[in-house]
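Query protein
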Amino acid sequence: MTQSSIYEFVQTLNGDFIGPALVFILLGTGLYFTFRLRFIPRFYFSAVRMLFSNNGKREKATKHSGMSPLQALSTAIASQVGTGNIVGVAMALIMGGPGALFWLWVSALLGMSTNFAEAVLGQLYKTRTAEGHIVGGPAFYIQNGLHSRWLARIFSVFFILALGMIGIMVQANSISDAITSIFPGTVNPIYIGLVLTVFVGLVLSGGITRIASFAESVVPFMAGLFVLGSIIFICMRIDRLGIVLVEVFRYAFTPEAGAGGAVGISVMSAVRYGVSRGLFSNEAGLGTTPHAHAIAKVNNCYEQGLMAIIGIGVDLLICTFTGLVLLLSGVIDGGSNLVGIRVMQAAFDSGFGSVGNYFIAISLFFFAMSTIVGWYFFAAQNVRFLFGERPIIAYRVIVMVLVVVASVIKVELVWELADTFNFFIVIPNVIALIWLSPKVVAESDKMKKEIFLIKKKRDAHR
């Protein structure tokens, strides 16, 4: 069986079965928790206030005490904001038209409820290893809450493969692709991989302390840089913004004729690609971010659940600006022969000239670099769950080797395999989320009572 035939088989499997099944499962889970928790996104601004209170203060993370809520949130966002925010959104708009952006927003609102549940359960079932590390995540609440060690092991094995190895390769390859597209034929990808490996190695070798500091410093910078560049671009095309927004809402509910990547895009295409790209971008239900939220130092589990919905909000902001820039640029009108990161480079190039290519390359470097660090940290939690502390250094070396290898090879098959393995991550995680939902509801009720008392005190002092 040749590599091309394997690729075609896996692509067909993902397109016909796994992709639609994952969208159905993740969307259904989001709807379930949205109704069960009585629309948790309405507490978004309460979460923001909590973030800027003492609960989110800067503290030094250690393996024995965990991270501050802000550091845990930053580490979670580091994994959520990656190439999917650019490449994934571009794919959604090309295949689903402007209306896909609306359905991406819907998936983010539903994802907030799922992510709240994941963070709460991460906190409830976190534990401490024999070496003193505070650890948590789906494997731990599957084993200790669902009481299924074999299902927890399945989750951990596929998580390490899908995100801790294959996913990291995809992120590294995206950086290499973006840089080589600016300097075609002049920069050897192997050098890009080696430089990236040095950066990754410096961060990972510092353990939880350096990873938390990196996330806390880099995430606000990278998000702010991209949003600022996007705002400038939108201001340059402000005369078309109203038209684009009308198209987003109009084509979310009515078929398109000639807009986007194909003639006559259906409403179903807008829903399918908008929802799927949104869910895979914010990672709600995928079981990634609870690894970070689990080790936050909080007084109540629901506090980190509120931090989790902020993470979805940041991801939504980046995706929204990506979508608006693409639609305002016109690079995807009537279809696009461009693929991957080159679509976004062409969009910014239309406004900033050659500077746009450098801007996207720099943005993608930070997006992908932070995701590599975040996914390594999450996968390391699962390595500890399966094997203890000893293999961590060996796993770190494997990650650094994979970063170099991914910089010089084509990863289409690798990307498809990652999507396939995601299925075996989502299933055990969602089973545990639904089974343990009464505990999430109990924490949500505590949160609502606390927020009500705070508002009552605030009103009394007016």
Notes: The CA atoms of residues 234 and 325 lie 6 Å apart. Confidence is low (pLDDT under 50) at residues 257-264. The longest strand covers residues 127-128.
